[in-house]
Amino acid sequence: MENKTAVKHKKRLIVGISGASGAILGINILELLKENPEWETHLIISRNAKATIEEETSYTIDQVISLADAAYDADNISAGPASGTFKAEGMIIAPCSMKTAAGIACGYADNLLLRAADVTLKEARRLVIVPRESPLSVIHLRNLLTLAEAGAIVVPPMVSYYNKPLSIEDMNRHIIGKILDKFGIEVNDFRRWKGC
Ligand SMILES: Cc1cc2nc3c(=O)[nH]c(=O)nc-3n(C[C@H](O)[C@H](O)[C@H](O)COP(=O)(O)O)c2cc1C
Asked: Which residue of 68, 81, 185, 190 is most buried, as measured by CB atoms within 10 A?
């Protein structure tokens, strides 16, 4: 009998970080998935996100890139995630700027982040966007509605209170728990309502 070793492939998740406030959410997602043997992350950081990462966090761009299994330049429109043949369970954009939300809503795929999201929708894969802006204009709201109608799951980084957060880290963990829940990924210390 032939001795075959079964190769179990990891599930691929495309993680986009755009130039909205809250880059730490995308970074924390990469950190959590780095510890998860079932998942493989493919990172796209927009050009403008490089500014928010530097402005808001203590991470260098290289440190963020090193958290992912693979990373692509947002200008590299011929990278794997630009094609529907690239196998992936789906994509998370955290945080998602209003510009990126508008680009996806219009099908205006002029960088790899937008193209990968466009492909995720056209291939009927799961697209979770974490839009961050306040207040939201009618234009923002219309674009988010268009995305929800097209099948995206819109998970704004809204604070929950029932879990009694004591720190920004507690709040972020809860938001990330809700985001990763959409892919069936458990986050340690994510407090569900009444422990459900
Ligand atoms: C420090 C900083 C914070 C920003 N925060 C937001 C934000 O919360 N939401 C948003 O839509 N845009 C925000 N912007 C503006 C976006 O970076 C800008 O619209 C950019 O064109 C987005 O491009 P991208 O989606 O390709 O990353 C911020 C910019 C800077 C420099």
From this structure: 81
Which residue is associated with the tokens 């340690």?
188
Is 55 a pocket residue for ligand 1 (Cβ < 6 Å)?
yes
State the burial class of residue 186 (Cβ atoms within 10 Å of its Cβ: 0-12, 13-18, 19+).
Answer: exposed
Give yes or no for residue 143 CB within 6 A of ligand 1: no
pTM of the model: 0.95
Best mutation site among 15, 48, 77, 104 for ligand 1 pocket (most ligand atoms within 8 Å of CB): 48
The SS3 assignment for 190 reads coil
Give domain limits for the chain.
16-191
Q: Which atom of ligand 1 is nearest to the CA of 97?
A: 11
State if residue 172 touches ligand 1 by the CB under 6 angstroms criterion. Answer: no
- Nearest atom within ligand 1 for CA of residue 56: 1
Which atom of ligand 1 lies nearest, measured to the CA of 51? 31
Reading the chain (196 residues) residue by residue, the pLDDT tens digits are 444 555 678 999 999 999 999 999 999 999 999 999 999 999 999 999 999 999 999 999 999 999 999 999 999 999 999 999 999 999 999 999 999 999 999 999 999 999 999 999 999 999 999 999 999 999 999 999 999 999 999 999 999 998 899 999 999 999 999 999 999 999 998 888 886 7
Q: What is the dihedral of CA 91, 97, 102, 104, to 10 degrees?
A: -10
CATH assignment, 16-191: 3.40.50.1950
